[in-house]
């Protein structure tokens, strides 16, 4: 219902803090446009959590979503929200997110090897004297914070051990990868290597 949708949205955006009264009405309009779809709500909330908490910024997002929905009756809100969230990603995070499309649907992905793959592919930007793996871990948590990656298993000492990507977000990864032919070829090569090396043929298995 609307109350549960708003609670899901506001907890993600404001992280338990009090929210400005002038944003509540606008926020509820944004939530309503999501049609009660949890994925759309949390992804849109993840986007807004990383933006200025202002009426102007939120209005821009609401108007963007509504513009696409009214332009074409066949356009679905989830498609608009997911595409908007991808477009809003910093350029440094986009290849890391798109790379997740190589993993089979419903796969549980081990984080440590994934981060090493990101580093090996050259996706991680240098950040002073910081180790590239540590920077890659920051990227992972940014994508989790934006609700583009789901945490699957956590260990107290090591943190996130495995993660997942929602089927619809995986579809978005594949679709956007095809826009970049060079990236698509790289992903295809890695995908074939993973299939050969892992021997995984069923869903729900952890990779690596």
UniProtKB/TrEMBL annotation:
Alphabetical list of InterPro entries matching this protein: Apaf_helical, Disease_R_plants, P-loop_NTPase, WH-like_DNA-bd_sf, WHD_DRP
Keyword Flavoprotein on entry: no
N-terminal signal peptide: none
Every Disease resistance protein winged helix domain range: 102-173
GO molecular function: ADP binding
Keyword Signal on entry: no
SUPFAM superfamilies from the UniProt entry: P-loop containing nucleoside triphosphate hydrolases
GO biological process: defense response to other organism
Pfam annotation, one family: WHD_DRP
Keywords: Plant defense, Repeat
Name of this chain's protein: Disease resistance protein
Organism: Trifolium medium
């Amino acid at each position: 219902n609307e109350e549960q949708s708003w609670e899901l949205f506001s907890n993600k955006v404001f992280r338990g803090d009090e929210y400005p009264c002038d944003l509540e009405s606008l926020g509820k309009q944004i939530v309503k446009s999501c049609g009660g779809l949890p994925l759309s709500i949390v992804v849109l909330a993840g986007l807004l959590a990383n933006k200025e908490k202002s009426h102007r910024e939120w209005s821009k997002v609401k108007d963007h979503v509504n513009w696409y929905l009214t332009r074409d009756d066949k356009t679905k809100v989830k498609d608009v929200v997911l595409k908007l969230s991808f477009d809003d990603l910093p350029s440094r995070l986009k290849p890391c997110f798109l790379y997740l499309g190589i993993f089979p649907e419903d796969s549980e992905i081990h984080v440590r090897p994934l981060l090493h793959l990101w580093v090996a592919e050259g996706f991680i930007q240098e950040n002073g004297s910081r180790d590239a793996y540590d920077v890659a871990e920051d990227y992972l948590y940014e994508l989790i914070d934006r609700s583009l990656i789901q945490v699957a298993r956590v260990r107290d000492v090591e943190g996130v051990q495995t993660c997942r990507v929602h089927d619809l977000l995986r579809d978005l990864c594949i679709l956007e990868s095809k826009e970049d032919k060079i990236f698509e070829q790289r992903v295809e090569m890695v995908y074939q290597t993973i299939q050969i090396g892992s021997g995984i043929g069923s869903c729900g298995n952890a990779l690596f």
